[in-house]
Design brief:
mainly alpha, 13 helices, disordered N terminus
């Protein structure tokens, strides 16, 4: 995302496998690297319920959309949802209005793997700061050389996020948007460096209320307007505010 967590290519390098998540070289990710893909899905959904980001009775997106947003395979998502139903976090309903929903009185604090995320608070804040530095520089450079084709692509992605029907769909578009801004600089090296930091941070994103995500899309829209106007200072400032808010809105800012 986004200015809030917190959605084309899978979000993470190990997408569509059931092996350990995020096989990156950075030792700072050891806390979640020890988790299997199944455990990461369970932890992220359970934490979203614990923090009130997913409300009782709320219907989850289709498994394929969750799989793309969280960078895992559909089989992994189905297994994770089934186990969360068994734990009392989620429930399944049959019929026309059925599906997988947050339980009306969900069990909380029952997924031990969530502790691996809780223990990474310092790393997440560090990644947010690292992304802020890169995002400001990218926005500044993109404003100086963005092409009409790049602006059209960004407009299309903003419109897609306006239409998104779930946090999962929004998240996939959000990643594509920010990578498109990086490509608009014309610097291949910046895309690679930024993409690595972005995906490392996205490994910690949780499902998030769609209304809040739509608010963050207003910042995307403002950024595109600044790029179109060639206002490098305004673009950089929008990018800074968009990312810095993650210190408050990601789970590290919601745990108290």
């Amino acid at each position: 995302m986004t200015g809030t967590p917190n959605g084309s290519a899978p979000a993470h390098p190990e997408a569509h496998s059931d092996g350990p998540v995020l096989a990156l070289n950075s030792p700072k990710l050891n806390g979640i690297r020890r988790l299997t893909a199944l455990e990461t899905v369970r932890a992220r959904i359970a934490m979203a319920v614990d923090l009130g980001l997913l409300s009782p009775g709320e219907r989850l997106p289709p498994t394929d959309a969750i799989a793309e947003a969280l960078g895992v395979g559909e089989i992994t998502v189905r297994r994770a949802l089934g186990s969360l139903c068994a734990d009392g976090v989620l429930e399944r309903r049959r019929g026309r209005n059925g599906g997988t929903l947050v339980a009306e009185q969900p069990a909380r604090g029952v997924v031990g793997a969530a502790e691996a995320y809780h223990g990474q608070s310092a790393e997440v804040h560090h990644l947010i700061d690292e992304r802020t530095v890169l995002e400001c520089g990218i926005a500044h450079l993109a404003a100086r050389g963005v092409t009409g084709a790049a602006l059209d692509e960004l407009d299309t992605l903003v419109a897609a996020m306006d239409r998104a029907e779930s946090w999962a769909e929004f998240h996939s578009c959000d990643e594509r948007f920010h990578l498109a801004v990086a490509r608009a600089t014309g610097l291949d090296a910046s895309v690679g460096t930024y993409g690595t930091v972005l995906r490392r941070l996205y490994a910690y994103y949780l499902p998030y209320p769609l209304a809040a995500l739509r608010d963050s899309n207003d910042e995307h829209r403002a950024l595109v307007a600044a790029l179109r106007a060639g206002d490098a200072a305004e673009a950089a400032d929008i990018a800074r505010r968009h990312v810095e808010t993650l210190h408050r809105t990601m789970f590290v800012g919601l745990m108290g």
